Amino acid sequence: MIVHFILFFKSFPKVGENMRRAAVICEFNPFHNGHKFLIQKIKSECADEVVCIMSGNFVQRGDITITDKYRRTKAALENGADIVVELPTPYAMSSANIFAKNGVRIAKSLNCEMLCFGAEDSLDTLTKMVDILDDDQTNDKIQTAMRNGQYYPKALSLAVGEEYAKIISKPNNILAFEYIRACRSYDIEPVAIKRKGAAHDDTNVYGNITSASNIREMIEQGEDYREFTPMTVNDPCSLEKIESAILYRLKTITAEELAQIADVSEGLENRIIEAAKQYNSFSEILKTIKTKRYTMARIRRIILSAFLSITSEIQNTPVPYLRILGVRSGKESVLKDAKLPLIVKTKADIDKLDRSAKEIFSVDLRAAEAMNLAGGTIINEFTQGVIKG
User: Fold this and answer.
1) CATH code for the part of the protein at 5-121+171-237+318-388
2) Where in the chain are all domains bearing CATH 3.40.50.620?
3) Which of 6, 204, 231, 300 has CA atoms 20 to 30 A from the CA of 317?
4) Span 181-234, pLDDT tens digits
């Protein structure tokens, strides 16, 4: 049998009344056998209950999910998750530090004792790297290199040395560093899960496990993917299906509005406006805007943030509520002592929120309408109930 994950954690006894609760921040795009294996392993080795904090209809790489959040919630509950709570769109589609801080804030609000996350190295190595990165001398070296004309990745490499730079450059580790920082702030135990087998964007197959990106490719190409996921996706969603709506937004937004959008800086709004004038293709606009300073994922997030009207003010507001998407039967008590307002009966619970929280929820309403256009299945956010597992 192939071992796909190794857990690095302190001894967490599961005895008597000491029920332990773990959180997993996830996308489940789609939920697949690797996710199922991960939840089972967490429950068998370190926790009694697993709370999944899941991105809604848009994800961090700047894309719409292949199917809606309720189908993905149902799959998670049927395969071991106890609670699925939404990571609202402004945070799900953000930089690593905002993504991690708000995911961990949700975990703490649901009284989770630990956060389990994927990484390429052990927890000891990751923790050491966070200490190095947070050291004032390291930051001084980075700033000096950038003043001398180096872009951030090269400046970072020069500051920490080639060996450490290799650790930093691994995709899953970048998010892992932010999880460790956030766990320190919220007093949650970090649990690093070393990936074995199907890593992020891996196109290889390991038994009945392959990456979510590979499964999405199979679905989009009409290939048989059923061996790798318990989900059935008959109507895959894509940005291509809402391209005209995105283009309309880009061609009508003002530079002043765009300057308020999350992560827009250094006059990038003017570059976006000019690109939108020149092209009637989402991909061409992305290519035109792209520079060495901005990764393609960041550009995609900015464009979709403009489409959904996610401002810097909204994204920098700490997550103010818990939108419950699904609950396993018998696990309703997990919600009893929640530290943030719950959204369960949507219309009634939303009415109780303050203005700022309602603005954040309105982003998720726009994201849901985009999903409805992209997938052809109409879901009403106010009448759709909590999924029961």
Assistant:
1) 3.40.50.620
2) 5-121+171-237+318-388
3) 300
4) 999 999 999 999 876 554 555 667 878 999 999 999 999 999 999 999 999 999
